[in-house]
Design a protein that fits this description.
It is a single chain. Helix content is 12%, strand content 36%. It is mainly beta. The chain has a single domain, classed as SH3 type barrels (Roll), CATH 2.30.30.110. Strands 1, 2, 3, 4, 5, 6 and 7 form a seven-stranded antiparallel β-sheet that branches.
Length: 121
Amino acid sequence: MSDAEPVPAGAVLWFELPVRRPPGHEQVGRRPCVVLADPGRVQGTRFPVLIVAPLTSARHLPPGPLYVHLKGGSAGLPVDSTMMLDQVAAMDARRVRGYLGQLGPTEYAPVEEGLRAMFGL
């Protein structure tokens, strides 16, 4: 992935998420994230960043607009996962550790619905 090559929404990438100080409830470590936006598609940015939502394999999250469930195998995911839209973050593109796959339009539709609900769009 080059700096000039935009990353499409719905791409599922491995990221190395940083440890926060002081620690909170944010996700950390190596985990898959879904790209929600590449600001570089809109305008040149100072640094290459991607807007992402982390995934978890925890099963206790309720279905709903903020927690989008994805089946294992979707976009290369190794296990059933839940996207946490309540943890949307800007990540430095240098934290990308690999590519898993791309969510299709049907899989990505609940993500768009959740973002609209969360941000009141």
